[in-house]
Amino acid sequence: MPIPVRMTALLASVACALTACASTAEKEPPKVASFKSEAAAPSPSAANGPPVIRVDMTNAEEEALFSVYLKCLHDNGVPMTQQADGTWMWAGAESKIQSDTPKIKKACDNMLPQQAPEKAAATNPYYEEDNDKFWQCLKDHGDDVNKGADGWSPGPKWGEFPNAEAVTEQCEVRSFNGKKG
What we know:
Blueprint (H helix, E strand, L loop, with lengths): L4 H14 L5 H4 L24 E2 L5 H17 L4 E3 L5 E3 L2 H6 L3 H7 L5 E2 L11 H14 L4 E4 L2 E4 L9 H12 L6
Parallel strand pairs: 1-4
Antiparallel strand pairs: 2-3, 5-6
């Protein structure tokens, strides 16, 4: 069963937190972006850059952004599988490797959705506090996550709790709001 896009983004956030990828925030002063959400994400083009995954996006909206990117990969020769609902999926590890070639990156990287500035340590001066609030919110709603000396870590039943998708979206919106406290 494919992992939902939101869960994939969440997994990337976990990996980032576990590997201390936010350490660049200490070297550079934070660049603060506007956190106002727009009603609809702009369509991708080379002129305005890649689309941004807003914190308040639904899974369907997020999957629509990724589908444009994955279709671009397909249209440029990367093996992809189109699902019955029209969305695109990786055809396996080889397709992910092929998508990392210079030709494909040049053709499609401007369509690869980027994480919201609120969820990046380099652009959100309150990232650590917001991230802590997010994981605590998940725990408060019954998710299998634990805070240790090295930060939060998922347990074996992570993501398997009532209304997980809706609660995760609510926790993201409440936690990564661009405000201190």
